[in-house]
Amino acid sequence: MTIAIIGGTGPQGQGLALRFARAGVEVVLGSRDGARAQSIAEELVAKLPAGSAGISGADNEGAAQAADEFVILAVPFAAHNATLGALKPHLAGKILVDIVVPLSPNDPKIVEMPPEGSATEAAQALLGPDIPVIGALHNVSATTLNNLDWTINCDILVCGNSLDARKKVMDLVGKLGVTTYNAGGASAARSIEAITPILIRINISKAVPFTHAGIKIWAPDH
């Protein structure tokens, strides 16, 4: 299996590339600058343990075309719609996994949701009904992802209007050794994406003795 990570040269994209490659999934990093993506891919490969899958780099269009089925979008929200508009011709027959959170450019501790309600819904509206968009991996610390000595300390909420695509993404993300939960349709992303700035606020607070916290769904003990 080969997946693409668009915006893969950023901290979140690099961390996901490391995690998926270690789990045996081939990764192609996508960037506006294909040469830079390839250079960063080579740096990431040097960090992987023996037996991992490969990581390579390409421009965004080339990365999307190289993906068998899953294309992960990990760009800043400011580039979200423009990137998807350029990629749309290359996404036919694939599932877009949107991990983008519309954080305020002036304050990452709050969200500024687009008119559609969430980044996930904005992506679905832009791409149309024939390309399923699944929201996932919104609440995971990039620092945690990039440190392969750490386990991913959170559960993953997955949402989107296609149940079949949702289940496929849950299986894919489950390869990272995390628990995934079916959170329902795309409108659930309004709540899920909004969790991220709350975590950011908590993690930078001097009142708590930790950083890089995530969320977990706890079963009752009775």
TrEMBL record:
<dbReference type="InterPro" id="IPR036291">
    <property type="entry name" value="NAD(P)-bd_dom_sf"/>
</dbReference>
<dbReference type="GO" id="GO:0052851">
    <property type="term" value="F:ferric-chelate reductase (NADPH) activity"/>
</dbReference>
<dbReference type="InterPro" id="IPR028939">
    <property type="entry name" value="P5C_Rdtase_cat_N"/>
</dbReference>
<dbReference type="GO" id="GO:0050661">
    <property type="term" value="F:NADP binding"/>
</dbReference>
<dbReference type="Pfam" id="PF03807">
    <property type="entry name" value="F420_oxidored"/>
</dbReference>
<dbReference type="GO" id="GO:0015677">
    <property type="term" value="P:copper ion import"/>
</dbReference>
<keyword id="KW-0560">Oxidoreductase</keyword>
<protein>
    <submittedName>
        <fullName>NADPH-dependent F420 reductase</fullName>
    </submittedName>
</protein>
<dbReference type="InterPro" id="IPR010185">
    <property type="entry name" value="NpdG"/>
</dbReference>
<dbReference type="InterPro" id="IPR051267">
    <property type="entry name" value="STEAP_metalloreductase"/>
</dbReference>
<dbReference type="GO" id="GO:0070967">
    <property type="term" value="F:coenzyme F420 binding"/>
</dbReference>
<dbReference type="GO" id="GO:0016651">
    <property type="term" value="F:oxidoreductase activity, acting on NAD(P)H"/>
</dbReference>
<dbReference type="GO" id="GO:0005886">
    <property type="term" value="C:plasma membrane"/>
</dbReference>
<feature type="domain" description="Pyrroline-5-carboxylate reductase catalytic N-terminal">
    <location>
        <begin position="2"/>
        <end position="102"/>
    </location>
</feature>
<dbReference type="GO" id="GO:0008823">
    <property type="term" value="F:cupric reductase (NADH) activity"/>
</dbReference>
<dbReference type="GO" id="GO:0006740">
    <property type="term" value="P:NADPH regeneration"/>
</dbReference>
